[in-house]
Description:
The structure holds two protein chains of two kinds. Chain A is mostly helical. Chain A is built from 16 helices and no strands. The longest helix of chain A has 30 residues, at 209-238. Chain B is mainly alpha-helical. Chain B has one domain (3-79). Chain B has four helices and two strands, in the order ααββαα. The radius of gyration of chain B is 19 Å and the shape is elongated. The mean pLDDT of chain B is 82. Chain A binds chain B through residues 2-4, 7, 17, 19-20, 22-23, 25-26, 29, 32-33, 36, 51, 54-55, and chain B through 3, 6-7, 10, 22, 24-25, 28, 35-38, 40, 43-44, 50, 54, 57-58, 60-61, 64, 71-72, 74-75, 78-79.
Amino acid sequence: MKxxxxxxxxxxxxxxxxxxxxxxxxxxxxxxxGFVDLIHRYLPKKEDDILRLVGAESRCQEFVKLFSEEYFxxxxxxxSDEGYNQLLMAVPIPLEGLGYSDYEEFANNYxxxxxxxxxxxxxxxxxxxxxxGAEDRVALMEAAADLVGVNTTGRIPPxxxxxxxxxxxxxxxxxxxxxxxxxxxxxxxxxxxxxxxxEDNPEGPDWDEDTVAELVKQEPIKLDIQKKxxxxxxxxHEDLRSHFAELVNAVVGRPVPKEQLxxxxxxxx
Amino acid sequence: xxxxxxxxxxxxxxxxVPAKSLRIVELLxxxxxxxxxxxxxxxxxxxxxxxxxxxxxEGYKHATEEAVRALLKLDNxxxxx
Lengths: 269, 81
């Protein structure tokens, strides 16, 4: 038997006040003070609406909802554990950038329209000089060929197209969404929400006025990019094979006569 | 020393430890609770005092942990024998 076991048990039974718990109470209060400060800075008129709710979780959720309505969309994280602290640590922006793992598994995780669009875009990550990334696109090209036919994908250069090339060819046309998609895939839209991903940057930016102002500025640009991409995606979805062939024509710049395209499609099947 | 003597010695030492009145306990009893949280206005007013009380509590907590570690060492030594 341990020498002091009985003493410890006796002490425990008397329920001494926990200093740790007391310190935690003040720490939580500090987070609450920080949270109230955040409300004063960004949603001063909504203070009562937020603070009349009981508990950190529902107050944080209300803050996120009202902030999103007034500034830009915030991510709806789970605040049940960390409460105010989690919200105070960083601006909870939803990160929609595509990381290395996303690209590796692109053919398995994304829609047929996105796979087809990605087959036209160059490898989005660093390659040593002299390598064009064509070998990194093999799986994606195969998946695209299964969807739209090898005769169409066969017209795409193995290395795909860089975003700037696509902008040059497609801006102000109905295919502009592909150039926007290429920016997104290459993390080069200039919008943090689209260029940053959770894999590389699990934490968001700090709360400060410059950050919030910058994100406010980026929000309409981000929404415009996503709108253009979605429009193209919807159009491709209507008839993936023939619309994608039309898109490839627009990019490659050498339209294939319709009769020949039909023949090739028959051959594919 | 035997186990009985060890306990006797420790009890004797503990009895000589003076009572400690920590400011954090007083403050927590003093600050009103509003809607389940400590009153923010009072917290703001007592800001520096709270910081001092927290430092004192952290120091006391650290010293207590040291004492517990020392007692456990004594325990382990007995186990080894």
